[in-house]
Specification:
Blueprint lengths: L23 E18 L2 E2 L2 H15 L8 E7 L2 E7 L8 E15 L5 H14 L6 E6 L3 H7 L3 E7 L1
Antiparallel strand pairs: 1-2, 1-4, 1-5, 3-4, 3-6, 5-7, 6-7
Amino acid sequence: MDKLYENSETGCCPRFNPEPWDKKEITFKDKLFIKDHVTSFLHIPLNFGKVMVRNMERIAKAGALAPEPILLSDDNSLWGADIYIAVAKDVPGAEMVKISGTFLTQVFEGPYKNIRQWVKQMTDYVRQQGKELKKLYFFYTTCPKCAKYYGKNYVVLLAQI
């Protein structure tokens, strides 16, 4: 497969720059995403790779690759998560959604086992800003293979306020 992103050294995920995402307030206005679902067992995804491959093939076929890759996860139960993949236009055969809202962001780096600690830190950060957390999304910036290649596993938490 050709490189999905021009700045990708791996042929897969581009190198992530945390600076534009760390401790920022960002706004999405009708940002277009494909929505899909990943099955989990006690929050551990079971078919994440398969779901991502299916969707990335759809996106590539439709020529709908977003200029900046954004993959959000709404880990809404022990048994699954809704995922949202940013796209540049509608993708045939996929569920399309638009997300709007204001978000506080914070970048974390390390193994996924630290998620609980990151959620607590993010919750505290939102409170310190005098805001109320409405919903929390996880932005997984690279796949595990690319995170290993780059030597960094960045995860951005987006707290909708």
